[in-house]
Amino acid sequence: MGQLKTPAEINAMRPAGKFIASVLVSLRDYAKAGVSLRDLDAHAHALIDAAGAHSVYLGYHPSFGAIPYPGVLCTSVNDAALHGLPSDYVLVDGDVLSVDFAAQVQGWVADSAITFQVGTPTAAATKLIEATEKALAAGIAAARPGNRMGDISAAIGAVGRAAGYGINADFGGHGVGRTMHEDPHVPNLGRAGTGQKLKPGLVIAIEPWFMAGGDEYVIDPDGWTIRTADGSIAAHAEHTIAITKDGPIVLTARDS
Ligand code: MF3
Ligand code: CO
Question: Among 27, 179, 180, which is best to mutate for testing ligand 1, by the most ligand atoms less than 8 A from CB?
Fold first, then answer.
């Protein structure tokens, strides 16, 4: 398992969590029809610079990426579920936008994502987004000492399956610390009572992503953008949380 954090280290991660939350709220306000994904990225970049924070996305280059990551945000629209690159695409009324953002503040990283609708909401997208948020909440509620990793995964999967949504176990959550991606992996499907024991000091990102249609996804030629295979819409919700002896602390909690 990734290195366990002391209570003092968990406290030291709070500014990163607060910063990530504040940027996501600002981006949600900023994202209107007529705004491009690149505008959103530039807005976040300016907030990073103003805060003296450090992007952990820009230049990140895992083997699957055709190019190093070109922005500070992931912006995934409609059938894009994860890792959408900030492009010249201009948002239109009715778009379903997922924004995923991580950065390092005072040496510690936090990672969080929200999905929302641009302009006029639709019932279908509202229901999908609510299920994703409900799954995140269920996963967080299961993140307590005495439980196992499979309890988090099972809680997430149960919400998605009950709502009839597509779920793919690839690209789940992960440990978070001084870097964005640490052990352990936090799958979005699993069996309760299985997997490693959850211990105080474990800091993880929990990140359900559901598809309105089936379980399959496709990857764009850029190697980054994950889309639903059937063209249905997708939604993603993520928080970075710390497991303490008293239960989970949501480091990236937003006021709204
Ligand atoms: N923040 C994403 C996650 O939740 C990963 C983004 S990959 C990047 O794990 F290259 F865009 F940084
Ligand atoms: Co993440």
Answer: 180
